[in-house]
Every structure is written in C-alpha cells, then in structure tokens.
Design brief:
253 residues; alpha+beta; Serine Threonine Protein Phosphatase 5, Tetratricopeptide repeat; L,D-transpeptidase catalytic domain-like; 2 domains; eight-stranded mixed barrel; 9 helices
Length: 253
C-alpha cells in the first residue's frame, strides 16, 4: 500500500513538473512574441494556455532592446516589476498585439509598478486611438472629435464631421506652451478647482490622463494659461462639456 502511494506521488509530481515546464515555455513564448511584435508567436502562446496577465520579466538585456525601439521605453520599464504583456504591447504601440491579448481575456486595468494601466502607456506614446481601445470609452465617442487651433485660438467640436460649436480660447503663454499632438478625453469634472493655482476650472475635460485639460476660464484674447485650454464663454464651455463623451479624440495643432 505504501509503495503504491509512493508511486502515485512520484507520478503526480512528475506530471506537475511537466505542466509547469510547459506553462513556463508558453509564457516565455508570449513574452518573446510581444517584445518582437510577432503576432503568430503571441497567438500560439495564448492558444497553448499562456496567462495573458502574467508579469513580464524585464532584465537589462530587454531594457536595451526596448530602448532601441523607443528610448523612453527603457525609462518606463527600468525597475518595473508588474508589467503585463498588455502593458508592454501598449507601450510599444502594437495595436494588433493588444487586440489579440484582449481577445484572450487580458485585463485592461491591471496597473504597472508605477500605477499606470495599459491605456495610459498608449496615451503617453501619443496613440490616442489605441488608448481609446484600451480605455472604458463611451461608444458614442467615435462620433465626436475636438480640434484646438493654436494659431487662431479657437476650439471646434464636431459630430460625425459636422461642427456643433466653436469658440475663442486662450492656450498656454510662452514658457507654458500648450503642446501640440493627438489626445483623448479621459476624465470629466463639471466643477473643478486647480490644486496648484487655486482657481476654478469648470467644465473640465482632462486630456490623455495628463495635467492639461479644456475648461472654462479667463480669456484675455491671447495665449495666457499655464498650458490648459481656456474657453472664455461659459455657454460654449458648457456645450463642449455636455457633448463630449469620454474617449473623444482631440487634435491640438
């Protein structure tokens, strides 16, 4: 009887060891696929049972590889210990890899060591469309867009390409220039007060999880803010706020 139990234990131990080795191989395959952008490798790993949310090991060699792709990636992932494949794929701007991971159940809101979720990495590498995919965007956002013209100091809100409202704005003054680029609306607050400058910022729309936003504010007829986009007329600010779903794309040019 004791011998039979020992044999069973050894068999089960061997089986467990084999399964662990297979799981390790599949996860290594998934990591390699994400790092190299090899969708076939990612598909095979996930179909073979790789956990789409298991932490990616990022050592010195991989940091060099990431830095060669985009210099900022080496900064983002130095000392990182909680990055998932989805976080890495988002930071590498690989939308197809992100879609594949999501199709196998990858979680959108598992944070990195620094507290960022995948959508934030996509937003910070200036891919708002990918961030929109990874974020809990309002489905209606695909019908809306906002354009900020720095040269004419005007804001335009569109629905399906048709202008809903436009108005005069005041963007960042010299030294606090509003940065050009592509963004998306990630937060809305009807009543907000700046913690830094202690001034009200009603009808606030945050851009790409960052420090800049669109809100009602003083408009002296020239760039005068600390980087935010101030809409001078309350009725325009209110209309933009009420007709802008979370996830709306914003172009500042």
């Amino acid at each position: 009887m004791l011998t039979d139990l020992l044999v069973l234990y050894l068999l089960l131990s061997g089986l467990t060891s084999d399964l662990l080795q297979i799981a390790d191989r599949r996860h290594g395959q998934l990591e390699e696929g994400v790092l190299t952008g090899n969708l076939t490798l990612i598909q095979e790993a996930l179909a073979g049972g790789a956990d789409p949310d298991q932490t990616v090991q990022i050592g010195p060699e991989r940091l060099i590889t990431l830095g060669a792709i985009k210099p900022r990636l080496a900064h983002y992932f130095a000392e990182e210990t909680k990055a998932t494949p989805l976080i890495l794929a988002a930071a590498m701007d690989n939308a197809e890899a992100c879609k594949l991971l999501l199709s196998f159940g990858a979680k959108r809101y598992l944070p990195s060591k620094w507290g960022w979720v995948p959508a934030q990495y996509a937003a910070h590498i200036a891919d708002p469309e990918l961030a929109q995919l990874l974020f809990d965007s309002d489905p209606a956002a695909t019908h809306y867009s906002i354009r900020i013209s720095l040269s004419s100091q005007r804001v335009f809100l569109f629905r399906d390409g048709v202008s809903l409202v436009e108005g005069r704005i005041s963007t960042g003054r010299p030294g606090f220039d509003t940065p050009k680029g592509h963004y998306l609306v990630t937060d809305k607050e009807r009543v907000r007060r700046s913690s830094l400058y202690k001034v009200p910022m009603p009808y606030f729309l945050r851009l790409s999880f960052g420090e800049y936003g669109i809100h009602q504010g003083v408009n002296p007829g020239r760039p005068a803010s600390h980087g935010c986009i101030r809409i001078g007329k309350a009725s325009v600010a209110k209309t933009v706020y009420e007709n802008t779903p979370i996830g709306t794309l914003v172009l500042i040019e």
